[in-house]
Amino acid sequence: MNIFRLAGDMTHLMSVIVLLLKIHTIKSCAGISLKTQELYALVFVMRYLDIFIHFISVYNIVMKLIFLGSSFSIIWYIRWHNIVRRSYDKEQDTFRHIFLVLPCLALALFINEKYTFLEVSWAFSLYLEAVAILPQLVLLQRTRNIDNLTVQYVFLLGAYRGMYICNWIYRYMTEPHYVHWISWISGVIQTILYGDFFYYYFISWKNNAKLQLPA
């Protein structure tokens, strides 16, 4: 644990809180991609399969349970809550997430640190997390009315990944033999995908205007 990883975890947690706050208090999921939420749920399930096998710390278990529980709660709200589901823009959220899942699974089967079920699952979760935000970004580009809470949710997700890159750099400089190429490359790709969003986020902040992404 170091300050960058803690900041990354807290930023990730804040993104979940912002999204749940939007859904629970406003009773709206407008601008939120169900496809991205389903991908994140799959990411967490595959990554945390070892939750009852390898004990690292109470903090580690609690954070894993929070992300698992929140992911399935968000999906439940969007799919089955009587009020929230009415605001879901199914016609705009049309990204075929199967075209992300299958390539990531194939990549994990061929490129992993060890050919075991848990290691392949871990690699798959990293590859999938790198691209899971794509349906959300596509939906934001299609939606002309982007509310502030949705913008902050996506911003915090991107900031979380940025903090983890700082964490990796710090650990590489302070820990002997610390090398995790799969995590590093996946994380960098994920951060690059946020580049366009962060550019227009900065422009909107600088001009004190509402965020609008190019169509």
From TrEMBL:
Domain of life: Eukaryota
GO biological process assignments: protein retention in ER lumen; protein transport; vesicle-mediated transport
Pfam families tied to this protein: ER_lumen_recept
Membrane topology value: Multi-pass membrane protein
Sequence intervals crossing the membrane: 94-111, 117-139, 151-170, 182-202
A single cellular component GO annotation: cis-Golgi network
Compartments, record wording: Endoplasmic reticulum membrane
MF-aspect GO terms: ER retention sequence binding
Keyword entries, A-Z: Endoplasmic reticulum, ER-Golgi transport, Membrane, Protein transport, Receptor, Transmembrane, Transmembrane helix, Transport
Family: Belongs to the ERD2 family.
Name of the protein described by the UniProt record: ER lumen protein-retaining receptor
Organism, as annotated: Zostera marina
